[in-house]
Design brief:
The chain is an alpha/beta fold and 386 residues long. Helix content is 28%, strand content 25%. α2 runs parallel beside α4 and α10 runs parallel beside α11. The protein is globular. The N and C termini lie close together (9 Å).
Length: 386
């Protein structure tokens, strides 16, 4: 039902923590309180999902050769349908001119639509300062990989109006520590990813202010030295919060379980890293990044090279992680939901929770065995958007 921002409203559902029925009281677009009351509802209720890594979805591509305001707006609408009320549009390695153009479009889209501005608190730039070699580079174009440049970061911020809030880089570059300090001083977060850096380089990056690991366990060589690799120092450093793709394809259940135990749930979060083919019909496609790819009905996206071995991105929305985390990894529903809400919400500030925060809320059905939860209703700042 539509909600009015002028008078207190009540939204009912099941609390993932206790399984009891709750009523969320909304006033002036914010959550005033949460109370236990019985109303016979059978849908789970939680804060809207917060996704820090979204490249596109449902055919809307942030990293295509062109980007316009309509695409950004359509992407926001598509994300709401899968329960994401806050996300960081993610721009990958590309010529600087293309990154700047995309940043200007995202800035203009926010200025044109208050709901877009609310949903997009910032931008994540993944690259271009990553490892150049095959494996760690992933699907990023080798020709556009380049060392960190404080001047380029400043141009990003000028073009976007200060929207760049998260930068992923490999700390193997000599320029990395100074660059990280510069980015952090500008109020943005730095995440380590797409790297083959050694332990000393990772430690130097953390000392400089890096505080996240991008899709840890992916963007890596297929074969690693069992003792000296980039995973152990990132798992061991409690100053780093790890982002994981928990779609059932990027990490095995055992990998994910062990990594979550190493980091602790309070230093872990889930991203989708979804690309424009997410939510599209199964089939073969040609993409600007990755070239010929094949999308399976179960959401596995691989290079169309006849082997099906090499991932070409993620194609499942964030909510697909809930059954994986609960049924394959062994988390409770509340723990799984927190990895999609509370922990990523801390990175963007003031999102992912309920009382005292913006009334961004999701209701969903899931019986514990279905492959995917079903989003039934979404509220943004206390207004139903379904």
């Amino acid at each position: 039902m539509p909600l009015s921002a002028e008078h207190p409203q009540r939204v009912c559902g099941l609390d993932p923590e206790t399984g009891r029925e709750i009523v969320v009281v909304i006033e002036q677009g914010r959550v005033k309180s949460v109370k236990f009351e019985a109303h016979g509802v059978r849908e789970w209720l939680c804060a809207g999902f917060v996704d820090l890594q979204v490249n596109g979805f449902a055919g809307h591509d942030l990293n295509g050769l062109t980007l316009d305001i309509a695409t950004v707006g359509a992407l926001c609408a598509a994300m709401l349908r899968v329960g994401v009320t806050t996300f960081l549009p993610t721009l990958v390695t590309a010529p600087e001119a293309r990154i700047l153009a995309a940043l200007r479009v995202i800035r203009a889209a926010r200025e044109a639509d208050p709901q877009v501005a609310h949903m997009i608190p910032g931008v994540h730039i993944e690259g271009p300062h990553i490892a150049p070699e095959d494996g760690p580079r992933g699907a990023h174009p080798a020709t556009e990989v380049r060392p960190p440049s404080m001047a380029e970061f400043d141009r990003w911020q000028e073009a976007s109006g200060g929207l760049v809030k998260l930068v992923t880089l490999s700390p193997h570059w000599l320029e990395s520590p100074a660059y990280i300090r510069h980015v952090v001083q500008a109020g943005a977060h730095v995440s380590l990813g797409h790297t083959s850096a050694n332990a000393a380089q990772i430690a130097a990056a953390v000392e400089a202010g890096a505080r996240l690991s991008t899709h840890l366990g992916n963007g890596s060589h297929a074969l690693l030295d069992r003792r000296h690799n980039h995973l152990w120092p990132q798992l061991a450093d409690d100053r780093l919060t790890a982002m994981f793709i928990a779609d059932g394809h990027h990490l095995t259940p055992d990998q994910l379980k062990v990594m979550l135990r190493a980091k602790g749930l309070e230093r872990s979060l889930v991203v989708s890293d979804v690309v424009a083919l997410g939510g599209m019909p199964a089939g073969k496609y040609v993409t600007p990044i990755g070239g010929k790819v094949e999308l399976r009905a179960d959401g596995l996206l691989t290079l169309d090279d006849g082997t099906g071995k090499y991932l070409a991105g993620a194609a499942l929305p964030q909510l697909a992680a809930i059954p994986v985390l609960v049924n394959q990894v062994g988390l409770t529903l509340a723990e799984a939901v927190a990895l999609l809400t509370v922990t990523p919400g801390r990175i963007v500030g003031g999102r992912g929770g309920l009382v005292g925060q913006s009334a961004d809320i999701v209701a969903f059905r899931w019986d514990g065995s279905a492959v995917r939860p079903v989003i039934t209703q979404v509220w943004v700042r206390g207004r139903s958007v379904n």
